[in-house]
């Protein structure tokens, strides 16, 4: 019991300290002391705590000091934790406009764009809870139906069970899709520019040059290099020190 109380007290003190750092960072941000605000926010991350609001604040602070790559990295991390937050989405899109690199990609049809936004609107943890919840409701409804199948209310119970089963299957498929999607690792260029090499060797052929804020997907990686696929499909090896992953 004594050990439990000590752990509880320590956790409460640590939470209070982290909240104090967050308030301090927010105050410094309001005073336009952005590097100092960043230092306060990063202390929170160093303590092993993160949240959508923390990454969002870091993104805004880095943007204010023209660190576009780091701003976009934290906006992406905020979006992972707050997928339906309009402010996060707006700031990420606004940061993208500031990038030097442009990719002429076809605009998806409105229906496709809506589907993509809906698909990414739920976190994996949220879908897990919903899937388990509807599975339990489906099981209970089946049990109730079996016990009342000879009564007048049987048809209504059967329809309810069928509807719950369909919702469970949809959520299960959505959860599987998001779980697979969560394994994909995105990257953003943090340095002013970075060379895309044909192989993970410094003297290999340079295929293209990308600039701060450009996004891509990790194809494979080694200790010091990451093979990246750009939005237009081009692939090359970039030095890991030039990239942030999310």
Description:
By secondary structure, this protein is α+β, with helices and mostly antiparallel strands. The protein folds into 3 domains: about 1-95, Serine Threonine Protein Phosphatase 5, Tetratricopeptide repeat; about 125-180; about 185-245, SH3 Domains (SH3 type barrels, Roll). It has helices spanning about 1-30, 35-45, 50-65, 70-80, 85-95, 110-120, 125-150, 155-180; strands at about 185-190, 195, 205-210, 215-220, 225-230, 235-240, 245. A hairpin with a 5-residue loop joins β5 and β6 (about 235-240). The longest helix is centred in the first third of the chain and has 29 residues, at about 1-30. The relative contact order is 0.09. The model is unreliable at about 5-10 (pLDDT under 50).
Compact summary:
With 246 residues, the protein is an alpha+beta fold.
What structural class should be given to the helix and strand makeup?
Answer: alpha+beta
Please count the helical segments: 8
Low-confidence stretches: 4-10
The CATH architecture assignment of the largest domain turns out to be Alpha Horseshoe
Which oligomerization state do the chains in this entry correspond to? single chain
Count of structural domains: 3
**What best-fitting shape do the alpha-carbon axes yield?**
globular
CATH superfamily of the largest domain: Tetratricopeptide repeat domain
Let me know the largest β-sheet. Answer: 5 strands, antiparallel
Number of β-strand runs = 7
In order across it, which strands form the biggest sheet?
6-5-4-1-7
CATH classification, class level of the largest domain: Mainly Alpha
Helix content: 55-70%
Order of helices and strands: HHHHHHHHEEEEEEE
């Amino acid at each position: 019991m004594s050990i439990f109380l000590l752990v509880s007290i320590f956790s409460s003190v640590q939470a209070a300290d982290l909240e104090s750092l967050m308030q301090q960072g927010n105050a410094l941000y309001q005073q336009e002391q952005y590097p100092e605000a960043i230092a306060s926010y990063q202390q929170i991350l160093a303590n092993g705590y993160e949240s959508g609001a923390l990454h969002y604040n870091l993104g805004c602070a880095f943007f204010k000091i023209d660190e576009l790559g780091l701003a976009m990295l934290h906006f992406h991390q905020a979006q992972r934790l707050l997928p339906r937050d309009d402010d996060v989405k707006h700031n990420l899109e606004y940061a993208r406009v500031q990038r030097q690199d442009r990719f002429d990609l076809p605009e998806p049809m409105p229906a496709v764009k809506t589907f993509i936004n809906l698909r990414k609107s739920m976190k994996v943890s949220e879908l897990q809870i919903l899937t388990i919840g509807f599975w339990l409701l489906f099981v209970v409804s089946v049990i109730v139906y079996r016990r009342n199948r000879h009564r007048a209310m049987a048809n209504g119970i059967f329809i309810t069970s069928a509807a719950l089963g369909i919702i469970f299957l949809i959520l299960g498929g959505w959860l599987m899709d998001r779980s697979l999607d969560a394994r994909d690792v995105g990257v953003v260029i943090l340095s002013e520019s970075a060379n895309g090499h044909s192989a993970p060797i410094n003297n290999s052929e340079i295929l293209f040059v990308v600039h701060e804020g450009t996004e891509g997907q990790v194809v494979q990686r080694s200790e010091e290099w990451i093979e990246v696929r750009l939005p237009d499909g081009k692939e090359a090896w970039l030095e890991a020190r030039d990239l942030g992953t999310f």
